[in-house]
Amino acid sequence: MTGTAAPKRLYIKTYGCQMNVYDSERMADVLRPLGYAMSDQPEGADLVVLNTCHIREKAAEKVYSEIGRLRVMREEKQAAGLGTSTIVVAGCVAQAEGEQIMARAPAVDLVVGPQAYHQLPELIARASRAKGERLAADFAPEDKFDALPSDRAVTGPTAFLTVQEGCDKFCTFCVVPYTRGAEWSRPVASVLAEARALAEKGVREVTLLGQNVNAYNGLDESGAPSSLAALARALAKIEGLDRIRYTTSHPNDFSDDLIAAHGELEELMPYLHLPVQSGSDKILRAMNRKHSAQKYIDLIGRIREARPDIAISGDFIVGFPGETEKDFEDTLNLVRQIGHASAFSFKYSRRPGTPASAMPGQVAPEVADERLQRLNALLEAQRQDFCASLVGRTLPVLFEKRGRHAGQAIGRSPYLQGVHVEAAEQLIGRIVPVRIEAAGPNSLSGALPQQEMAQATA
Ligand code: SAH
Ligand code: SF4
Ligand code: F3S
Description:
The protein is an alpha/beta fold. Helices cover about 35% and strands about 20% of the residues.
């Protein structure tokens, strides 16, 4: 053994939502002082973390096949005399099925839930002595945020920032209230401090995250609860922070003040992910969403009055128990009325322990498949129409990274589409007007106004 500390390699694989992406970045922050440097592949890593998602059956099952692959990789590493590796399962599957993971996958050294990963350094040390450490099931996000290092590694001009965790809504299909616990909001000062530190490192855009982010009610300096709108107004004042986004919202927590903020704050991007799940009142009731389809449509109308160019995104579930063809058509009709810039649609997945899993009228998979295809076709046509409608317009683009061609840069429109621009590499980290020239299947392409002028005079 030599005394020099070679960097240990850490590989983190992230499944699920943006909350997990944020948590993975923070796990890397927690482990960096221990000498762990990020690796982009599991081969040869000393520590592998699977940050898992429990939302649908497929997501949860993927974890077990991944553990199997990691076990083989570790055996090969050991056989080659290259030492061993520690396998950690984190995230929502860890929270929901910690005991089962340990029983079903003995290769796992440590299971850690989403509110306990700030303790990773001690846990890893313990797990290397006694296998089978498990720490989950304590929902205390305040401890976590207090313990996380204030210094974050920043990789580009955009960053996620978790401001709220957990959910009290108990939609009958959803595991999140069980995996992430009750709603809890970070204090305003803690959010602002993290945002300021990010802005100082060149971050121009933050996406505020929460399972129910518009239920945000973190305490301000005077000890009074602050709304998401008030938080956005405070963030907008931070020098250098020019774009604010937030996700995911619930229709029932959408206050008039937040609508007003969309009309008033230039920094608040005109893009809103506001899931409705279904267009049928019968299904919405069975889902415990506590609002009607019309209430959602009216809400979008009011938001559009405040911010006419806002682009709407959403989530949909098809094949919820009891969904008839008529109910599904109500969903298609709602989609037609709203007009989506983007959306995610899912086939209902029966999750153990949720009320919907025991409901009568479970929909046959082939019926759900067929509905999913029809819904996707409609949503995709709407997305493409929206992209095509931007051609010829000039939009501010935040350049994030290099593209595939030399000199090319890729940025984001206010509506979250990727925008490719040639000869723009020097603009990475800046927000620049771009004239949109074409809409491809997955992104837009455009030119800088100066380039257009140069072409015109050439
Ligand atoms: N808090 C957010 C979303 C959380 S989960 C909200 O309330 O909208 C992200 C999406 O996964 C949900 O909006 C829903 O569309 C989908 N989803 C959740 N549980 C599901 C299940 N059991 N089957 C299929 N899709 C599900
Ligand atoms: Fe799940 Fe509903 Fe909570 Fe969203 S609001 S996380 S869908 S229970
Ligand atoms: Fe999945 Fe957990 Fe997010 S279940 S969707 S990773 S909150």
